[in-house]
Amino acid sequence: MTHQIKNKIESLVKQLNEHNYKYYVLAQPVIEDYDYDMLLKELQQLEENYPEYISPESPTQRVGSDLSEKFKTVEHRVPMLSLSNTYNEEELYDFDRRVRDGLPENNEVEYVAELKIDGASISLTYENGYLKNAVTRGDGTTGEDITVNVKTIRSVPLKLNPNAFEKLGANTIEVRGEIFMEVEAFRKLNHERETNGEKLFANPRNSTAGTLKLLDPKIVTKRPLDIFVYYLLSPDFDFENHSSNLDHLRDLGFKVNKHFRLCKEIKEVVEFCRSAEELRDSLPYEIDGVVIKVNSVKQQKTLGSIAKAPRWAVSYKFKAKQAITVIRDIVWQVGRVGTVTPVANLEPVLLAGSTISRATLHNIDEIYRKDIRVGDTVRIEKGGDVIPKVVSVVEDKRPSNSVKVTPPDNCPVCGEKLFKPEVEVAYYCVNTVCPALVKGSIIHFASRTAMDIEGLGERIIEIFVDKSYLRSYADIYQLDKYSNEIKEMEGFGEKSMDNLLAAIETSKAKPFEKVLFAIGIRYVGSGAAIKLADHFGDIDKLISATEEEIEEVPDIGPSISKSIKLFFSEDKNSEVITRLKSYGLRFKSEKAEPLSDLFNGKKFVLTGTLSGMTREEAKERIMNYGGSVVSSVSARTDYVLAGEKAGSKLEKAKKLGVAIINEEEFNNMTEQ
């Protein structure tokens, strides 16, 4: 039984970490917030009952991470914690009870209830009235400095109202808020992307998060981002209460959402939540709930925080928007890595401001579990504007001629036999020349997050594949052979072709990690590609590495290592890599030469807190001397650099007889 519990906990940790990565790093969530929260609650309960199985990588041990390693990292002076969620009024009353239990008797409690803007959190630091930096929430402790992008948002003041700032009597203040995109602006942006043949954003939150991570502020300037601020703090003094802070923020020149209420008791909070949910669809921007905070800053400090969230604040999440419609048909679509996914074609229905005619069914197990059939009347849901899903069947409306669904035996695109791994619920097309796989892999390769080939959007790629100009993404670099034919196509001309060829040529300068991400190895996202490129340095070393050696890279597990080995074991992939090399793409990291070979070939593990440097600085120094840093201790580890409060890695190093050095010894070795 305990073995089953341990496996269940490990499975939940893996699922949640993958969803964290997709949400915070890629900004491409694949499940609803509610589903994620339910998985997290299940894990929290299991870990509470079986604490011996809590692992350091469990999402309960951290807030989450959106670090993409594209921008400089900055440590938050005060952690940007996430909020605990509530989903009904009873849980709001429970929150009120916990607050009162945590305060001295006879203390009156006021709350401030604010709309929960569905966007991207940001911390703005001002020194002497001027914007110093803008930092993402990141993992709650450390974020990314995206000041250059935030400065393009016109509602973010670069200089504060001098009179209001002087009245505060502070040299430095920190302001926190939510960057967002209005719904109508989001629709216009998606329309432009569709016209250009580019991939559409799923919702305003995704478009906001994706925009803020762009490395070209000129593109960010063209995106209609906005901000509401909601929090004010300073290292120079404490403020009295949150409601007056909102007034201060307004006086300083910030945009503060007008829909908030100072509530004398929890009943008023509940009333505000009800009215906010009714107001939801009439607002020009997306909200997904209400944030409730204890008004008194002194009481906030008394209540304090748990590891993940403050005790003095909570989020009330709205129910996902639903509608009733009929399933006309269930079709199977093929993704870029061959995943065959069921999709319901629906009677068009208005939901959350848009007409819905398709909804994801995830996989065949989900269809069987909910007993979904063609002809059924179903409830569909669209939480946070993510791709709609079928929630349940309205069984009393099921027609007598409804049709049960069975998975296809053959690929719906190429007709080849489908493959289903024993340990997975998904079916796959493994025909490498299947048009769906070919199109999907080329679209991914040319996308903005990969090789960023402007002018080669989805619509153009589909045409080029249909005309056999492109049979793989390597063919992109020989498109000039078809220049005359392409120039004659509708919508194309000499200038368009010249621009496309110039963009293709420019893409050859993309760094190794971009190319590694672009070639489309299953499970190797942009973050993993950066880590792999950084660790191995060139594609040939990665190809020759064993699974065990690949798994030595931080955050790289068995699923990724197996996928990499499988990818490079296929002759067709090796041939494509050879072609890309011949076209001049970069398959080596262009790193500075090491200062010396002092640590040449040596593997380090870092553990504990260093007093004179950050871990990143220690890692950089090790690499400058020819060494590498791995995440876990093994018999092949050469050194463990141990700081204060070193944990299990230090104990393992002692057991294995690995050399252990402290910070002073490390400094002496590197003569710094």
Which structural traits does this protein have?
OB fold (Dihydrolipoamide Acetyltransferase, E2P); globular; 672 residues; Helix Hairpins; 22 strands; 6 domains; seven-stranded antiparallel β-sheet; D-amino Acid Aminotransferase, Chain A, domain 1; five-stranded mixed β-sheet; alpha+beta; 37% helix
Describe it for me?
This protein has 672 residues and is α+β, with helices and mostly antiparallel strands. It folds into six domains: 2-61, Helix hairpin bin (Helix Hairpins), CATH 1.10.287; 80-317, 2-Layer Sandwich (D-amino Acid Aminotransferase, Chain A, domain 1), CATH 3.30.470.30; 322-419, Nucleic acid-binding proteins (OB fold (Dihydrolipoamide Acetyltransferase, E2P), Beta Barrel), CATH 2.40.50.140; 435-507, 5' to 3' exonuclease, C-terminal subdomain (DNA polymerase, domain 1, Orthogonal Bundle); 512-582, 5' to 3' exonuclease, C-terminal subdomain (DNA polymerase, domain 1); 603-670, 3-Layer(aba) Sandwich (Rossmann fold). Strands 12, 13, 14, 15, 16, 17 and 18 form a seven-stranded antiparallel beta sheet that branches. Strand 21, helix 24 and strand 22 form a beta-alpha-beta unit. The longest helix has 24 residues, at 2-25. Residues 62-69 have low confidence and may be disordered.
Q: Main beta sheet, described?
A: 7 strands, antiparallel
Shape: globular
The named CATH superfamily of the largest domain: DNA ligase/mRNA capping enzyme
Approximately what portion of the residues adopt beta-strand conformation? 15-25%
CATH topology of the largest domain: D-amino Acid Aminotransferase, Chain A, domain 1
Tell me, rounded to a whole number, the average pLDDT: 87
Helix segment count? 25
Number of domains: 6
Cα-to-Cα separation, first versus last residue: 53 Å
Portion of residues in helices?
A: 25-40%
Architecture per CATH nomenclature, i.e. the level-2 architecture of the largest domain: 2-Layer Sandwich
Unreliable residue runs: 62-69
**Structural class determined from secondary elements:** alpha+beta
CATH class of the largest domain: Alpha Beta
Gyration radius, rounded: 27 Å
Q: How many beta strands in the DSSP annotation?
A: 22
